[in-house]
Amino acid sequence: MSDVNITIIDREGISHTIPAPTDMAMSLMEIVRAYELAPEGTIGICGGMAMCASCQCYVLSEDVPLPEMLPDEEAMLFEADNVKPNSRLGCQIPVTEELEGLVVQLAPEI
After folding, report:
1. CB-based contacts of 44: which residues, under 8 Å, 6+ apart?
2. Which among 20, 98, 15, 68 has a CA at the least distance from the CA of 88?
3. Each residue of 71-102: pLDDT tens digit?
4. pTM of the model
5. Domains in the chain and their CATH numbers?
6. From the record, what ranges are coiled-coil (predicted)?
7. Region of residue 4 (left: phi > 0; alpha: psi -120 to 50; beta: else)
8. N or C: which end of the chain has fewer CB within 10 A?
9. How does pLDDT run across 2-19, given as a tens digit for each residue?
10. CA-CA distance, 10 to 81, in Å (whole number)?
């Protein structure tokens, strides 16, 4: 098993650096849920289909390559609240080896 270290700042402002497995086809949203970094029922409400923006996060790392934003994610962020230029949906970011050192902050609860 190969893990990457990801830092997630929760909605209380607490920073958590956690190991995230790269061999389980998980998304960043699923990592947040697995480590219970947001109250149950407040993140990933749509199940990771880019339809609710409950997993919106702000990407604070500028040097970590992320996958290109697809039209569904872009459309959902266009309609979401609290959107910033560095907003992404955690459900659309697969955990891969390229995410080593990623730092994100969870957006306020919707």
Report:
1. 29, 30, 32, 33, 54, 55, 90, 91
2. 68
3. 999 999 999 999 999 999 999 999 999 999 99
4. 0.95
5. 3-106 (3.10.20.30)
6. none
7. beta
8. N
9. 999 999 999 999 999 999
10. 17
